[in-house]
Protein 1
Amino acid sequence: MGGLDVRQILERLPHRYPFLMLDRVVELEPGRRVVAFKNVTINEEFFQGHFPSNPVMPGVLILEAMAQAGGILVLPEDGSAAGKTFYLVSIENAKFRRTVVPGDRLNVEVTLLRARANFRKLAGRAEVDGQVVAEAELTLTGVDPA
């Protein structure tokens, strides 16, 4: 499957502004790999406090972008998840290499490492202009609605 525009992302993920961290999915190999991006702009709400005179995207939001891309990756190809919501349950080996600032395009690549029951272990990597800004291993789990 090719990519997804923001409307298709909104159909698949429960996240909404200001917490949607993806603008487009450019490559999607269901169950294997996803590549997405977020255009980081000065009008992001988090820049009001992080930091007003030196705006830097919080590292946890870079990880959240990876988790959201992972959520797209683990859904069935038609975007349905049989009513499940996927939650981030662990982050391992997170490393931050450089800052992400307004004007950057945050490129995120997530690959599936393994699947067991309702758990998916993923490798995430974020880059700006070909330079790695962050990487981590993430675990997501699918939960049936209450």
Note: Strands lie at 24-29, 33-39, 85-96, 105-116, 119-128, 131-143.
Protein 2
Amino acid sequence: MPLALVTGPTSGIGLAFARALAAEGHDLLLVARTKERLDEVADELSAKHGVTCHVLPADLSDLADSRRVEQVLRARPVDVLVNNAGFGLNTPFHRTAIDDEQRSLDVLVRAVMRLSHAALPGMIERGHGAVVNVSSVAGFIPRGSYGAHKAWVTSFSGWANTRYRAKGVRVMAVCPGFVETEFHQRMDADMSGIQRWMWLDADRVVADALKDLRAGKAVSVPSLRYKALVGLSRVTPRRLVEKVTRRGR
């Protein structure tokens, strides 16, 4: 069976990716901080789809833990790598503890870079494979350090897809907007002002993303509404963009 490694698979988009890949017949390597939740997901997917699920508890903000995951990727080459692990911070940049900002950078950027670097050689050698990096529409406009991190993920993914697709390896950034997950609850953010039409379903985001991956796209922006918003952001006068970005952290 093909093998996929998913980071952050215990909820939200990561869980949706794990379920979708298991339904397609992928064995799974599941990486997250909490072993109990990993075991629950592994048991669910094994029972439902008959796939083999291995759990690897790791905190990707910790370099030693990241290196353990990298070693697994080198020892057990995967067919699909989904870099999904992430979190948000809900205080202005100048008031956030710098160690928290560093942890965010490490998970959202460093881990994506290091795990991709570990997975790509095996994929290139076999002549097939895919890396899916979960980014955000926040990366298309200045939105604090979170948007900057996601801009890096999207740019890196676009470059890597151009560089390695001739070798049979696809790399794609998934750039959703607001998704109904635990993400905002975990950062204690008040989302009551967000209009209902702006929210996306995680399973639909993943279904669209996998369709775009197989179509060879370097960037997947799920839903027509967010495709339109991203397109609008590229032609909107800078002065208007600045008004929006002042509300970001």
Note: The two ends are 44 Å apart (CA to CA).
Protein 3
Amino acid sequence: MPLAGSSITAAFLGALLVALAAGPAALAQNVVRLPLQNSDFPISSAVTIKAGTDLYFLSGMLPPVVDKAAAKGSAAAFGGDTAAQTKGALGAIKATLDRLGLGMGDVIKMTVFLAGDPEKGGKMDFAGLMAGYTQYFGTKDQPNKPARSAVQVAALAAPGALVEIEVIAAKQH
């Protein structure tokens, strides 16, 4: 593949330079995260997985029912708004990762399905997603950022759920 004019090659070389600047510990990593250009948004543009890395595919997680007194199938049963439900779904993912000996920093790809929020005129609440998401990713304690997609869907399997999140995690073996 020619080096000149190849944005993919340039992006990879940029990620390699970032790893080199970080020192030998970064070079030992089998997961290379390419940050978004000219942005501090808490996702990666791309993530490269090298040989010697195990991949873990987690099924979509809904938020847990947190209010058994709330009407069954209501958003309130799952914690209310999108921010609370995102935090609940990510908490469920964290618990599964913990059982696998992994952490949130091992998440390399995330797909978020958002149902329209009746309180927002049937539109997805992206700001609510980000309020929950940024408690787990791109923080001082957990700076790793996965590649991510977020889409609005007509509905989720559980009435009242506004968020379902699936992830792929990777860990060097």
Note: Strands lie at 31-35, 44-49, 53-61, 107-115, 147-153, 163-172.
Protein 4
Amino acid sequence: MVINRIVPLVLPEKIFLLSVLYRAQESENIFGQSQVTEHTVISFYLLVLAAESDTRSNDDLQDIIEHRSGHSTEITAFVLPVHQFNDWLIQDHPFASRVYEQASLLYDAGITPLAIPDAYNEAAAKEMLRSILDTHTAQAQEFIAGAGLFMLRKRYGLAAFHLHQAAEQIYSGIIRFLTGLRVQTHNLDKLYRYARHLLPALDTAFPRDSETEKELFRWLQKAYTDGRYNNGFSVKQAIISQLSERVQKLLELCKTLQYSKTTHT
């Protein structure tokens, strides 16, 4: 059990299950008429509330949970101090409110009780989050336009940086819109993992299911610093063209949320 591995390592206050990502496997055979479909868990998404007495950073705790628990299934963890989560509950924060109302509590140390929130104004939250998504989408479009200009000038390093910024805006916007959580990181790997369970179609833009695909994504990741500060950073035109197509696909997926009528969990 994944919880039994995490608790001794980080001694959390509470752990919530946010979602589970499955992979469907279908099989047919000549000996039976029915088609068999199996669902294998490939990733758990958890919210871990750190104890009041824990002085470690959120990033340190996240690293321990995701990389040192020794569990065979991938774990993606959002880590918050329990007092911050309680403050958010009192403030009707969209993320905290939805976790409180809908998430499964997998572990509770029972030391710090959760605050009791007032009635959650879902309609107001949706309107606010949709406005934020619109801003992220508009910024991503500008970065994509900037990348196109630098591609024309054959400044491929700067083009890659602008594509990174566009992808960052898209992933961050999707996460904020669908969860209410503002994620402050330039790490595209984290943003990708945070977003993929919210909108599975995102994997069609950057599937990362082969070494070639992983390498393509790594080019985009490296562009944040190397595209601006490393004079030796060199990207081939073919790579930039591929990245441009993929980031544009991300943008189109993001736009499907802009025009949706409801916020998804």
Note: Residues 2-108 form a domain with the GMP Synthetase; Chain A, domain 3 fold (CATH 3.30.300).
